């Protein structure tokens, strides 16, 4: 037991790590590839309330605002997203993200997980990298590592045991910070 009801395997380990991205304007990217992955939407949300002052502990204002901005910028809806890497620092965080991002109605993500919908071979794969609880949480590199995983999935070059079995056209990353007080959501398209 870490803090009831969370046990050891419900919590991500803070780890060392690094990740790197090459971001470029479209005309520059075309010098390197014929098939760039485009960022078509991004949003940042924040909430100044500390955990004990929030109206609810089962939703993050920052996630809802960041995703609203990203969806609006991209012109996409939650149903358009095929896969996502979400910030699952604790078991409950993945469930809350799946609902706050609009993938599932409030209270429905747990059943979707039980039904296998978020598995690599499910209808909406979530955290094909294994997530923070599996691979570790290199705090400063976490968001970039999520983007690298999405890039690999969209290019079809993820390791064999992690690659989804369909062509990924639209994906999303969700990264929280400060006990959920800040969030960045990014949408990617081919």
Protein architecture, described:
The structure is a single chain. The protein has 190 residues and is of the alpha+beta class. The protein has a single domain (9-189), classed as Peroxisomal Thiolase, Chain A, domain 1, CATH 3.40.47. Helix content is 28%, strand content 15%. The chain has helices at residues 26-29, 61-74, 91-100, 109-114, 131-135, 142-155, and strands at 38-46, 83-85, 170-177, 182-189. The chain has a four-stranded mixed sheet with strand order 1-4-3-2. The protein is globular. The mean pLDDT is 92.
- Identify the CATH architecture: 3-Layer(aba) Sandwich
Q: What is the count of DSSP helices, taking H or I runs of 4+ residues?
A: 6
Strand content: 5-15%
Shape: globular
Unreliable spans: none
CATH fold group? Peroxisomal Thiolase, Chain A, domain 1
Quick structural overview:
By secondary structure, the chain is an alpha+beta fold. It is built from six helices and four strands; from the N terminus they run αβαβααααββ.
